[in-house]
Automatic annotation (TrEMBL):
Catalytic activity, EC: 3.-.-.-
Name of this protein: Serine hydrolase domain-containing protein
Organism the protein comes from: Streptomyces yanii
Molecular-function annotations in GO: hydrolase activity
PANTHER family, per the entry: BETA-LACTAMASE-RELATED, BETA-LACTAMASE-RELATED DOMAIN-CONTAINING PROTEIN
Claim: Hydrolase is one of the keywords in the record: yes
Keywords: Hydrolase
Amino acid sequence: MTSSDISFGNWLTPPHHRLGLHRVEDVVPCTTIARGEAPVRMLVPASEPLDWDLLTVPGPDGRPISAEEFLARTHTDGILVLRGDTILGERSFGGFTSASRHIVMSISKSFAGMLAGVLAAADLLDLAATVPTYVPELAAGSYAGATVGQLLDMTAAPHYDMSYLEPTAEVHAGDRAAGWRPRQPEDVVGTRPFLAQLRGAGRHGADFQYCSGTTDVLAWVLERAGGAGYGELMRRHLWSRIGAEDDAFVTVDDHGTPYACAGMGMRLRDLARFGRLVLDDGWREGTSVVPADWIARTRRGGHFATTAESDSAAGGTYKNQWWIPGDDHGSFYGVGIFGQYLWLDPQTDVVIAKFSATDQPVADTPAHLDALGAIARAAALTPQEA
């Protein structure tokens, strides 16, 4: 398969997605999130890197498998294991390289969660306010009674089906509205017109309901609170401050609206740099980029179990657009369909960034999490010095 085989109609469809997920800018309109002029955060290779041949991780049935088998089985494009600023392991496969930019899918939500914390700390965002306070265009729709805090914790209750394998579900209609998939004659054009026409809701704040549309409503709120476009807010408050080596991108619809729930893309090392910032309690070279107390609240998790959701660990919760598995290391993570992961382990001080192209949109999440946890523990035993 070559780049010429990738098109707007198939970039999300296996097996074409194996190239499509890191050829997004060739097939979907995108806008740049500039890295700015700040110095690049230097990452250095370990003197004794992880030995992937000897490393074992839990397999889907709980029995140990080799790390190589795990990487192959999950159709890994790239993986990077970082402790401090030391690269303990880095692998790339197929046509993916260290200079490639890969879409991160719903890890985009975790970026939105950190951006919200910055605006809240600046007293620009009121978590107790309802959505129409910032976006009156949604006063008659599914999100009318939801608060900003409920958006962040996925406890808003819109009428929205997230079944990835059901073409009639709202998640697919949202993709088509955002310009990710070929549209049908009855489709709404644009993410925000799509959100505004949603009707029906359960009781907001009563339970966990994972929903991509909720993050796009949050992004709309953040724009109004922050007084700038979403991409500009992301550049100003996060991306230009993490020491990225390259610009990021975010896909946009026909109106130029970013698909905040899933559309960000970047280099693997830059995703790890973002994870490093968060694991460092939001500090970068003596400056607070994201408030430490916001990250601490995120790590404590939410009020509702997320076990029924396919992206969750058993006994997990969700807070501020991050997943909290409840393991004995206090780990937390962002995850996107087809196997995108940003795994943060505070006890071992390890960040793992992983890009993949799994066969199914959601596949073997518990096993994936167990494997990433095992890699983090093994990395803790690896010398850091370069």
